[in-house]
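User: I've been trying to design a sequence by hand for this structure and keep getting stuck. Would you show me what you'd pick, starting by listing the structure so we're on the same page?

Assistant: Good idea, let's start from the same input. This is the structure you sent:
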């Protein structure tokens, strides 16, 4: 083989290898993980790409198939579509937000609940099951940029379940939580301002 052919073949091999590396999805799990890290997200594609796969199901809905009324407002969490819907009590306000959802069906909970508490600047403690799965996680994180609950949280009547913000915006639109529903911080701040203690919540 001539030097020129060797250079061409080597260059082709390098380009093919580089393309394969770029096309490969990021790993869902790594040997070490922090609370806000890529390792806590099930990655279906490169995290730097825009998430578009749920656009067809990300659509406006009417509240009537899901609630008997909108007293105190109503929040519908569509886990499959990865979307959160909100209707005000007088139905004059309707909002639709993209969300993160639980990593697996086993971590998901569906059914009716309600907002029982609202916290701005929430602190976070991992549940016993989280610590069992991730023993390297800290037992407590106060408010701030490292907190996985973002800037605001709506506590639900189910123990450990919240609708909250996230500082890790890569998680939105993905399976990335241990059971909670996550929103962009600007969206949870908006929802936080509209929802009340007693707002009904349905997860489907």
């Amino acid at each position: 083989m001539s030097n020129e052919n060797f250079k061409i073949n080597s260059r082709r091999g390098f380009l093919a290898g580089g393309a394969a590396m770029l096309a490969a999805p990021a790993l869902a799990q790594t040997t070490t993980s922090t609370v806000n890290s890529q390792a806590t997200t099930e990655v279906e594609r490169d995290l730097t790409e825009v998430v578009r796969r749920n656009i067809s199901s990300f659509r406006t809905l009417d509240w009537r198939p899901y609630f008997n009324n909108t007293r105190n407002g109503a929040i519908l969490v569509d886990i499959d579509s990865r979307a959160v819907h909100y209707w005000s009590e007088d139905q004059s306000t309707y909002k639709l937000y993209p969300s993160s959802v639980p990593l697996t069906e086993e971590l998901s909970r569906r059914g009716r609940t309600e907002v029982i508490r609202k916290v701005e600047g929430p602190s976070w403690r991992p549940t016993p099951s989280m610590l069992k799965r991730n023993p390297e996680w800290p037992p407590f994180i106060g408010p701030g940029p490292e907190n996985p609950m973002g800037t605001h949280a709506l506590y639900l009547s189910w123990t450990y379940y919240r609708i909250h913000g996230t500082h890790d915006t890569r998680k939105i639109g993905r399976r990335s939580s241990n059971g909670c529903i996550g929103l962009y911080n600007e969206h949870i701040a908006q929802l936080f301002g509209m929802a009340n203690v007693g707002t009904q919540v349905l997860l489907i």
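That's my pick for every position. To get oriented when you compare it with your attempt: The first helix runs from residue 3 to 23. Strands lie at 74-78, 83-87, 94-98, 101-102, 111-120, 152-156, 162-166, 175-177, 181-184, 200-203.
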